[in-house]
Each structure stands twice: as structure tokens, then as C-alpha cells.
């Protein structure tokens, strides 16, 4: 049953059509902001943003993608259409309208598909360090991530993800750059979130995030979209993702950040939050 847009429930589950249970957090009141997390994380990755926007008077919602976090560890339904439909089921259950949808990394692809597929009730969208228009190297995207790199991510996830998840936090947050101050708590929190989900879901999600193309989605979106991307992103390279995707949007805007890493919503939360707030409060 849907709830009024100004009445949050704290947290809960929505059971979608195939029986999968999708976990969500729902805090505060006011205009809703719906956060979509990246692979292989959970709604917890948005803590810095949710606490900030809650204080600013917004209603903040975030869900765990199927197979991730606290949602059902299902082996089925791993495709971008289903991911977007799961998020829509949460939005419908909570009765969200006039919402801003914000996605990071794979979550940015989910937002692009969501807005193209379910535009009603969406006011604005933001793609942060996101995979669109396409992650891997293709004929249309010759400088994308090579297939052998994608294969190594799938192999690491399927066969030895405990160590692989520790290792990938280093480039994810730019901790391999000269002068970087490594935050072990941030690394451990990434690992904790990753290990909450299922290996099969995460392995399948690598396929989805690498193979899905979003050219048509981006072209179909009619609302204002802010593309935010670190220029030193070692996971979703800026020249083939953020620098391209905003040009395919009818009402797109790019804000790039010299030297910032893929995980900049965590490493540079104050800066990212301020820029998000300015975009959300700006008259359309």
C-alpha cells in the first residue's frame, strides 16, 4: 500500500512481482530524494548524503538493489530494466512525487533507465561517477574499459571476492595516488557492504553494468539532469562516461572535478553535497 509523500516509515521491504523483497530506508519529510547505489554496495553507501539532506529538510529514500545488502539474495532478474522496475516499486509503495533521483556508478545507469522508463513523478536527476552511456569497450565506445578488465572483475567477484573487494577500494577512492590519506574505516565499510550481498548477484551485476548501453535512455530523458564526475575516476573513466553522457541529454549539465576519484561522494562529501543541494534548489 502506498503512503503519503510526507510520511516516512524509517525502513521496510517491498515485495515485487517475482517475489523478491527489496529493502529500503525512508527518513524525514519534504521533497523526496531517492538515492541509487553502485555495485556491489547498498543503501548504506549514501549515509553522508542522507544525513545531510535530512538536515536540510528533505525526505531521503534509498534501497538495496536485488541481491545486494539486505534485499533478497536472488539469482534472477539481473538486468537494468528489472533494477529500474524494483526501484519504481519502492517509489510507488511510498507514494513519492516530485522526486529527485540520484545515482552513483551502476546506480547512475539505474537512474538513467528509471527516468526513461518511469518518468512520471521525477523532477530532476543526477548521475554521479556513472556508467552511462556504456562502460565497456565497444565499436561505438572504442576507448571504454577493455573486456579483459571486465572479465577480471567478474572473476574476482565470483571466485575470491573477500580479497578482491579489499583490493578494489584502493583505486575506487583514489588511495593509490601520491599524497592520498587512506581512511581504513571507509575501506572496511565498503567491504562490509559488499560482503552483505550475494556472490551470484554481484557477478551478474558486473555483466549488467558492463554490457548495458544507455544511449537511448539518455536521449529520451526530458527533465534537467546534472552529470557529476571526477576527472581522476579509475573505475568509470571520465573521458568515456561523464564527458560523453551529458551531451546526449536534452537538458544535461556537466560538473567535473579535477583530481577527484570514483568514490567522491564519500571522500569529498561536503563538496558533492553542496553542489547537489544547489542543483536541487535551483529553479527548473
From TrEMBL:
Entry keywords, A to Z: Hydrolase
InterPro entries: AB_hydrolase, AB_hydrolase_1, AB_hydrolase_fold
Superkingdom as given in the UniProt entry: Bacteria
Record carries keyword Hydrolase: yes
Entries under SUPFAM superfamilies matching the protein: alpha/beta-Hydrolases
Any one Gene Ontology molecular-function term assigned to this protein's record: hydrolase activity
Domain AB hydrolase-1: 32-257
PANTHER family assigned: HYDROLASE, ALPHA/BETA FOLD FAMILY PROTEIN (PTHR43433), NON-HEME CHLOROPEROXIDASE (PTHR43433:SF3)
Family indicated by similarity: Belongs to the AB hydrolase superfamily. Bacterial non-heme haloperoxidase / perhydrolase family.
Name of the protein: Alpha/beta hydrolase
Amino acid at each position: 500500500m502506498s503512503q503519503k509523500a510526507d510520511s516516512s516509515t524509517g525502513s521496510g521491504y517491498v515485495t515485487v512481482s517475482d517475489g523478491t523483497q527489496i529493502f529500503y530506508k525512508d527518513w524525514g519529510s519534504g521533497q523526496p530524494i531517492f538515492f541509487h547505489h553502485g555495485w556491489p554496495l547498498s543503501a548504506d553507501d549514501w549515509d553522508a548524503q542522507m544525513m545531510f539532506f535530512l538536515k536540510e529538510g528533505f525526505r531521503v529514500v534509498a534501497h538495496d538493489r536485488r541481491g545486494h545488502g539486505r534485499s533478497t539474495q536472488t539469482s534472477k532478474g539481473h538486468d537494468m530494466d528489472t533494477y529500474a522496475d524494483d526501484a519504481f516499486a519502492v517509489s510507488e509503495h511510498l507514494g513519492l512525487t516530485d522526486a529527485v533521483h540520484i545515482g552513483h556508478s551502476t546506480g547512475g545507469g539505474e537512474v538513467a533507465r528509471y527516468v526513461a522508463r518511469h518518468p512520471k513523478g521525477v523532477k530532476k536527476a543526477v548521475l554521479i561517477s556513472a556508467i552511462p552511456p556504456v562502460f565497456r569497450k565497444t565499436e561505438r565506445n572504442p576507448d571504454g574499459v577493455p573486456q579483459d578488465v571486465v572479465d577480471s572483475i567478474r572473476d574476482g567477484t565470483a571466485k575470491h571476492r573477500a580479497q578482491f573487494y579489499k583490493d578494489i577500494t584502493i583505486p575506487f577512492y583514489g588511495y593509490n595516488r601520491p599524497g592520498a590519506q587512506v581512511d581504513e574505516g571507509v575501506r572496511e565499510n565498503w567491504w562490509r557492504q559488499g560482503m552483505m550481498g550475494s556472490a551470484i548477484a554481484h557477478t551478474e551485476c558486473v555483466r549488467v553494468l558492463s554490457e548495458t548501453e544507455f544511449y537511448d535512455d539518455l536521449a529520451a530523458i526530458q527533465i534537467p539532469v546534472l552529470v557529476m564526475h571526477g576527472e581522476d575516476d579509475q573505475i568509470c573513466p571520465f573521458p568515456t562516461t561523464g564527458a560523453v553522457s551529458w551531451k546526449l541529454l536534452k537538458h544535461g549539465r556537466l560538473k567535473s572535478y579535477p583530481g577527484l576519484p570514483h568514490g567522491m561522494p564519500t571522500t569529498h562529501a561536503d563538496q558533492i553535497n553542496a553542489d547537489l543541494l544547489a542543483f536541487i534548489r535551483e529553479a527548473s
